[in-house]
């Protein structure tokens, strides 16, 4: 396993994603899907216009309500899907079982199911049309590795009957559930790849899908997917959809290296200070985090592990 030093800007396997934030028109419309189908616990914050969705002690999704936010424009970059990772096949089977009995009442649809060789995944549209993947990883020793230590992913049918048979019977997402990756619709894949790889410090993991690239810290199959399949041509706007997501690095040295790499590549880097998730954290948080926008205006918050 390759582990480059933090000083060269290369993120290692100690890096993972934290939370993803969505701007939604109505919490009452959207929350039941994430609670009743995905199985996340819900905590309302501030004046009731924010919900934090968690598995155990791990926050996964932040929903910010803005009733005046328009629908995402058809030309605008943004979210293809967010991906909630469950720890095992039994937990994924539970999501399928809950979806079959509750998705319709929650205003959501099961839109697909795939075997990606490295993982097994269920795909949904939440009540406001955001793509949501719920998946479980196969053990790394079972992944198809290339000679240069990349991975080879595919999209094959998933046997839903067998998956349902393996359901564990739990009603909520278990401990170990987290945000595994985000998949973005971008205006220019090579430009976005240069940001996430050349400046942020991830690595290309798979380029086998036309019009797409999958990048990650260390040797994970992907933390960020990038695609141009729907020919988006404008940056993300102020409508509903993704606001930001977190990249969690292991220590201060790595955070400093990322800050220096982003600045050297010409990106405007701001101090963090968003310990409570809304940009109003205390002064100490600024030393533990940074904020930058990717080439399409999607917020990337790099935070130190705590």
Automatic annotation (TrEMBL):
Keyword ATP-binding among record annotations: no
Gene3D superfamilies assigned to the protein according to its UniProt record, in alphabetical order: 2,3-Dihydroxybiphenyl 1,2-Dioxygenase, domain 1
Taxonomic source organism: Haloferax massiliensis
Protein name: Catechol-2,3-dioxygenase
One term of GO molecular function: metal ion binding
Record key words, sorted: Dioxygenase, Metal-binding, Oxidoreductase
Residue ranges of every copy of the VOC domain listed in the record: 16-137, 178-305
Pfam families: Glyoxalase
Record gene name: catE
InterPro entries, sorted: Glyas_Bleomycin-R_OHBP_Dase (IPR029068), Glyas_Fos-R_dOase_dom (IPR004360), Glyoxalase_1_CS (IPR018146), VOC_core (IPR037523)
Region annotated Disordered, chain positions: 269-289
């Amino acid at each position: 396993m390759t582990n480059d030093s933090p000083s060269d800007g290369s993120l290692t396997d100690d890096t993972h994603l934290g939370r993803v934030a969505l701007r939604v028109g109505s919490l009452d419309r959207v929350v039941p899907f994430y609670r009743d189908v995905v199985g996340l616990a819900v905590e309302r914050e501030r004046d009731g216009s924010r919900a934090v969705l968690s598995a155990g002690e791990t926050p996964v999704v932040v929903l910010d309500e803005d009733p005046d936010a328009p629908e995402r424009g058809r030309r605008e970059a943004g979210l293809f899907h967010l991906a909630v990772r469950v720890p095992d096949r039994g937990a994924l089977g539970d999501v399928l079982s809950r979806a079959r009995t509750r998705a319709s009442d929650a205003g959501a649809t099961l839109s697909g199911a795939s075997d990606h060789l490295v993982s097994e995944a269920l795909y949904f549209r939440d009540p406001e049309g955001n793509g949501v993947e719920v998946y479980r990883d196969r053990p790394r020793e079972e992944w198809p590795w290339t000679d240069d230590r990349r991975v080879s992913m595919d999209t094959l049918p998933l046997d839903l009957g067998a998956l349902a048979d393996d359901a564990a019977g739990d009603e909520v997402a278990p401990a170990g559930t987290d945000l595994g990756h985000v998949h973005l619709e971008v205006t220019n894949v090579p430009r976005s790849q240069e940001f996430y790889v050349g400046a942020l410090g991830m690595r290309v993991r798979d380029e086998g899908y036309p019009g797409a690239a999958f990048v990650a810290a260390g040797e994970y199959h992907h933390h960020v997917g990038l695609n141009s399949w729907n020919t988006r041509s404008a940056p993300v706007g102020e409508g509903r959809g993704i606001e930001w997501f977190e990249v969690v690095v292991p220590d201060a040295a790595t955070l400093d290296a990322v800050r220096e790499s982003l600045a050297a590549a010409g990106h405007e880097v701001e101090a963090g200070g968003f310990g409570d998730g809304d940009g109003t954290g205390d002064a100490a948080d600024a030393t533990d985090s940074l904020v930058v926008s990717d080439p399409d205006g999607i917020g990337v918050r790099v935070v130190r592990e705590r």
